[in-house]
Design a protein that fits this description.
Elements lengths: L8 H9 L5 H25 L4 H8 L3 H8 L7 H10 L12
């Protein structure tokens, strides 16, 4: 890729995984969100310097489950996600977009 060339990642994703609204793109987006969420949770856990086992103990699950979440192999349900967030001292903000 040339230094001066503008690269359109959206077009690349459309070509590789289908356009928004297709089942293929929805599957890709779900995996991407899982990976992104896993990285945020893993980074936060490491920042507060607790092990996977300690986090698992705090929220009442097994260490393997935390590992699967951090590796993007599974996505926690909403209530488990909030328990993880709280155990790590994080906060979630949900807001409506400004119109």
């Amino acid at each position: 890729m040339s230094k001066n060339k503008i690269y359109d990642i959206s077009a690349e994703l459309d070509q590789e995984f289908g356009v928004h609204g297709t089942p293929e793109r929805a599957q890709f987006d779900e995996k991407a969100y899982a990976f992104y969420t896993a990285q945020i949770l893993q980074d936060a856990r490491k920042e507060v310097k607790i092990t996977q086992a300690e986090l698992a103990n705090r929220i009442g699950v097994d260490k393997g489950y935390i590992s699967r979440i951090e590796n993007g192999l599974t996505s926690p349900n909403v209530s488990t996600f909030y328990r993880i967030v709280n155990a790590l001292g994080l906060h979630i903000e949900i807001s409506k977009p400004l119109v």
